[in-house]
Amino acid sequence: MHPFAYDPFQQRAIEAIERDVSLFVAAPTGSGKTVLADYVIERSLARRQRVIYTAPVKALSNQKFRDFSARHGDAVGIMTGDVTINPTAPLVIMTTEIYRNTLLEDTGRLASYAWIIFDEVHYLDDPERGTVWEEAILFTPPHINLLALSATVPNVAELADWIRAVHRRPVEVVEEDRRPVPLTVLFQCQNAIFDNPQQLKARGYLNQENWRFMRHRRATGHRFAVHPNRLDRLIRDLAEQDRLPCIFFTFGRRRTEEIAWELSRCSLLKPEERAKLGALFEELCARYQITHDRSVTALRRFLDAGVGFHHAGMMPTVKEVLERCFTSRLMKVIVTTETFALGVNMPARSVVLDTLTKRGDNGFALLRRRDFLQMAGRAGRRGMDAEGFVYVRVNPMHVTYPEVLHLLQANPEPVRSRFNTAYATLLNLYRRHGRGLLDIFPKTLYYAQTSGARRQQGLSLMERKLDLLMSLGYVTRTGLTPKGEFGSWVYGYELLLTELYTRDRLTPLDAVSLAVLLVSLVYEPRPRAGCAKPHHLSKRLGELCREPLARIHKEEARCTISPRTKAPAYHLSHAMEAWMAQAPFERITQLCDVDEGELVRYFRMSVQLLRQLAEMPVNDPALRATAEQARRRINRDVIDAEAQLRLG
Q1: pLDDT of residue 81
Q2: Mean pLDDT in the chain?
Q3: FRET label pair with 597: which of 138, 141, 332, 447, CA 20 to 30 Å apart?
Q4: What is the pLDDT of residues 487-522, one digit of tens each?
């Protein structure tokens, strides 16, 4: 099926696929797991069977849609919430949320599917979305075979055992530790490049394992100079050793731009490469209709040096152009945040990690070993490079030498359940099983991985959520009430929207007011964001939501459920109102303190929520019409994800 010989682990997996057996494959990033997804798809289409491919992020879903469409044409569709193209195709790419929702709402729609492919299934332990992956696997019907693809994790056998127990089906496990392209790890420390950990300890740490401990000794006369790691020193080594192109990972949007700006002082392109890259960039900008965008004008300087940057605050179309430029191998360095490592196919000869610590909820902490492997695994292109190179920038005042060794040598962290069932999930299950849905809990990964008090806490949380739904009138002992039916369709925002709807506070809203309300629900202010600017609609909508939200919070407190339902945040009200009035995008970016890419993301999330309101069968026809009107008015120009995907 492929024009090359399969590796032994690929051959073992293919033998299982030929027997129509579900399987769990764990292998390093860049080892060729995608070949197995290709094999399942090609085989299924040849047999006139149907396949679903799920991915953790929309960028990866979009890339897979383009790749598979180039190969299979109209046999490919996509459903991501803000994009629906050819949804009845034999091969459909879905976000995991869309697949989970389909399982709960209408499993009959999946009767003709033979395989489900879960890409990046280690996302099971994502703090926010891991529960969706667990529910998606848990509720997959027995006639659909599973192909689960994961980065290297130490508890793959445990995960496979869980799937066997839940589905009572055979599940093959295929593990591979070897990378087809070996990695060489180097270190920049004290502004020198070291080839191995021994050199790093002797010359970077001066044989002192913990410089953080030694800080206080400087006051007593000890002097330990730390020489800053200069970017020009690093990029010179990469260029001289012929180790470009390079993905430069860092952990902040502003930091990506700062590094790219500094690197742009070094010209990394030959004249003919500069001309080719410039022509490609302009061609892509014209295709995506962003030639005169302000950010594009600024990026031209970086492109002249062979440098680009990429983060979530950028316009999706601009990111798309930069990704295409990098895959052309003409761009020599792309500076990006870690989400770039999540499956999107951007191979490079080298990877640089700007730091080994990352800000979290409790301050800065060492990277996880699994995250390190995910990013490092982008180095070395199979079929192009004999080896890949990972440059780790080390500041001995920030990380100890044992911490560096831990990231290099420790086992990856095991995947742990993040099971935390949403209200809409419970409502859909209650419709089928009543309170018997609690019998599902022993089938969860959470149950399999816990015992004693922790296991009881998980069950107790489900019981308390059911009690809350009963006290608010969403369920009775015999089934769902009209409130419950409405809430079962609105994932993530069930309680407040349902309370507003049943009190007849949603239906009277016009399209602009409804759009402002929904963008306020989906918007998550950054930790240091100030208060929202006063706005006439915000005040009215705040009054509308105050009493229903207070009742919800009171019941959540009574049932000891946390975190409690999110209150609307009206920071994007001015921007949404202006956009609904046909203002240009450049204008609305001046009406809020949010990066362009974030603004597009929240507007697209609003479109997705409006689509749910417009399509739910239990909704008031007048509200459905208003929701559809608002959706169409928002979903234009740069917000229209489907139009962007069709341009690709």
Answers
A1: 84
A2: 91
A3: 332
A4: 999 988 999 999 999 999 999 999 999 999 999 999
Residue 588 has pLDDT above 70, yes or no: yes
pLDDT band at 219 (very low <50, low <70, confident <90, very high): very low
Per the CB < 8 A criterion, the answer to whether 441 and 458 are in contact is yes
Q: Are strands 113-118 and 145-150 parallel, antiparallel or unpaired?
A: parallel
Contacts of 433 (CB under 8 A, 6+ apart): 439, 440
Distance CA 522, CA 517 (A): 9
Q: What is the pLDDT of residues 392-439, one digit of tens each?
A: 999 998 999 999 999 999 999 999 999 999 999 999 999 999 999 999
* 541: containing domain: 493-647
> How many angstroms separate the CA atoms of 153 and 56, rounded?
17
pLDDT band, residue 135 (cuts 50/70/90): very high
Count other Cβ atoms within 10 Å, centred on residue 643: 16
pTM: 0.92
Judgement on whether residues 384 and 425 belong to the same structural domain of the protein: no
Q: Let me know if residue 414 belongs to a domain.
A: no
Computed from CA positions of residues 441, 446, 449, 453, in that sequence, does the dihedral angle turn out positive or negative? negative
- State which H helix or E strand residue 102 sits in: helix 96-105
DSSP string, 598-615: HHHHHHHHHHHHHHHHHH
Residue 333: helix, strand or coil by DSSP? strand
CA distance 608 to 616: 12
Count of domains for the chain = 4
507/486 Cα distance (integer angstroms): 13
Tokens of 402: 């044992």
Q: Look at residue 305 and tell me if it is in a domain.
A: yes
* Rounded Cα gap, residues 66 and 78, in angstroms: 10
How far apart CA 138 and CA 40 sit, in angstroms, is: 21
Residue 242's alpha-carbon distances to 237, 239, 385, 387, in angstroms, are 8, 5, 11, 12
Bond preceding residue 621 cis, omega within 30 of 0: no
**Which one-letter DSSP state was computed for residue 123?**
G
Which percentage of the chain shows pLDDT scores above 90? 75
| Strand, coil or helix: 236 | helix
CA distances from 185 to 77, 153, 387, 472 (A): 40, 21, 11, 57
Residues 447, 374, single domain; the answer is: no
Average pLDDT over residues 622-636: 96
Please confirm whether the linkage preceding 3 is cis (ω < 30° from 0): no
26-40, 49-63, 357-371, 447-461 — which is least confidently predicted?
Answer: 357-371
**520 and 472 together in one domain:** no
Q: Is the domain of 381 the same as that of 237?
A: yes
Q: How many whole angstroms separate alpha carbon 484 and alpha carbon 494?
A: 9
Reading the block at residue 374, the tokens are 């995910």
On whether residue 58 sits in a domain, the answer given is yes
The answer on 198 and 138 residing in a single domain is: no
Summarised one tens digit per residue, pLDDT across range 302-321 is 999 999 999 989 998 999 89
Tell me the backbone φ, ψ of residue 174, rounded to 5 degrees. Answer: -125, 115
In whole angstroms, give the CA distance from residue 427 to residue 489.
Answer: 9
Instruction: Give per-residue pLDDT as tens, 321-364.
Output: 998 899 888 999 999 988 765 655 677 999 999 999 988 767 78
What element of type H or E holds 327?
A: helix 316-327
Q: Is the dihedral of CA 21, 26, 32, 38 positive or negative?
A: positive
Beta bridge partners of 523: none
